[in-house]
Amino acid sequence: MPKPTVPFVGSYDDLRELHLLHHIFSLPQLDSIRNNPKAVLAAIDDFVQVTEKRLMTIGPNKGAFIGQLIHDHKPSTVIELGGFVGYSAILFGDALRAAGGKRYLSLEINPVNAAIANQLVELAGLRDIVTVLVAPSHKSIARLVKENEIDSIEFLFVDHWKDRYVYDLWLIESLGLLKPGVSVIAADNCIVPGAPDYLAWVRASPAEKAVQLKEHQFPESVLQGADLTKAIKSGAENVELENVPGDPSYLYETSLTKFDMGSGRTDGVEVSKVVGKE
Ligand SMILES: C[S@@+](CC[C@H](N)C(=O)[O-])C[C@H]1O[C@@H](n2cnc3c(N)ncnc32)[C@H](O)[C@@H]1O
User: Fold this and answer.
1) Is the ipTM reported for this complex over the cut 0.90?
2) pLDDT at 75 > cutoff 80
3) DSSP H or E segment with residue 37
4) Pocket residues for ligand 1 (CB within 6 Å)?
């Protein structure tokens, strides 16, 4: 048997995510923050302030904005692409529960991040609502479809690696998971570091999107639409999921909200509502 290899552990070289976990579970007031999502988030924020070790979490301003969207749209299920250590899952899982929602599915590729997220979600008392799925997002999306866990997406929070934004949206569109008048997508970091391909897609007309697809290279064997859903549900192996054509017929009402990130930096969250299909 080949020796197991671990290509990477956490997301940061100094493993600050593990340091965070130790810090939180060593707090003298641990019992008083248990089952209190806001107190757990405040403890994470304190860690960042005291150690000056930045974490790639959503942060308070963008977090409040997306929490308000969840409050307004009242989805039953939220899917998040990119969970990291669970900050947004705790923040939005709490908002979802307050809005009467039932399930927050946090998709995270890195098992160490996911393990930390699970501990912090548990500490926050959100185990009944937040589930962390460990795998590349395209595989978790397919698994959720295969296991009949989802047949649509009401609210999608996109916050993983920016070069995957448009590809995962294409997969979701191709699987027919977006519903006009229901589905809302909030995509973080659309200015810093930016997701130009994603913005170009959600802002384009169906005709412009058809041109974008024509100019893109897809594997020869690629399936789409009902054929792709059928292949996934039947458990077919090696189905192409990472590079499948989106469905250009979706119509989005889409806009960017900008946020001052301090130190002269501005970032933006693109909110795209599915308003129809051509
Ligand atoms: C910006 S962080 C997420 C921050 C988190 N949403 C929050 O606000 O607390 C991005 C995370 O996406 C994860 N990630 C990157 N590519 C991914 C993929 N293809 N599938 C799932 N997770 C991915 C990274 O491991 C990282 O933990």
Assistant:
1) yes
2) yes
3) helix 37-51
4) 11, 56-58, 81-84, 87-88, 107-110, 113, 136-137, 159-161, 164
